[in-house]
Structures are given as C-alpha cells and as structure tokens.
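Protein modeling request. Please complete all fields; requests missing the sequence field cannot be processed.
Requester role: graduate student
Desired output: 3D structure, token encoding
Chains: 1
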Amino acid sequence: MAIKGSLTAAMAVIALASGWAWGATYHSYSLQEVGQWQGYPVFMGWDAYSFQDQTPQVCASDWQCGSTAPVQYLAFYGSYLDWAEAAPPGPAHGFVVTFWDDVPAGADPRYPAVDWSHPGQPLHTVTVQEFHVEFIGWEVDPCNPGPPDQPNVTDATFKCRVALQPEDCFFQQQDSIY
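Delivered output (178 residues):
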C-alpha cells in the first residue's frame, strides 16, 4: 500500500514504514477543486511519491513566517496509490516531519540556473504517530482529468491533521522562509 501527495519545498513530510507518502501543509498549499463527484469535491492533484528509505524525494511545502509563535498544528493532504474508496485501507504507522531552512531561487551554487527555492539544511525533525485522517474528496490527474460530469477519478483524497506535543513544536523566526 502506498500513498502519494503534492508539494513544493521546505517542510518535508515522510511516511514511516507504512507505505504512506503525503504532501502539502496548510501554510502555502491549497487543493485545486475542479468539480463534484458522488457528493464530494474533486481535486486536481499532481502526485509526488515519498517513502522513508524507499525514494530519494520527499514531499515538502514552503511558507513565509509571519510571527514568532511556535508551529503547533500541521495539516497536509495525500492519497493512497490506486485507492478510490472513502475509507482508508488501513492506518499509517506515522510520519516524519522535518522543517528546513530555505535556499532562495538562484542562490544554490551547485545549481545556479534553478529558478525555484528548495530546502537547504534540516532545522527540526519530529516523528508523529498520533494524528487524525479524514476523507475529503476525490483526485484526478491534471494530464487526464476527464469530462466535468464524469471525472477520471484516480484516488481518494485525505487530510491529515497533527497536533504537536509541546516538546516537538518548531520555533520559527518572524519573516523567515521555511
């Protein structure tokens, strides 16, 4: 069983040995709703696979911090690979969440032509084993979405919510990008 997600760069979420991989925090990512099917939203999703110790990539999202308050709550979205049912096929064992500093677009001496920001060095990592998962709708592949009245649904989409323990919170610096 595998899960996939969608993202950009700086807070990485990796699934533990359960076969889950998720994407997107609520900081800077919102799902693109493109319609309704079976009474639920249909989202446009580009999949990025991310598994701990099984793939070289992780799902990540970046945000600009607007306060010095600690990050206490996380929300991210994902889908099980080839799973199109509203109930998850089984529980995840957990997630590894890492907060990274940001390498601005064009600032990486190894890749000066790269015109997007990306994670730099890890700043804080926590393993999360307590979370809430809920079904929120369906996903279609942007390369083959199908007609609006009969979307080419590929997967169920789930939202995962995490409340970090006080000792696991990430303390951000105002106006920093992570």
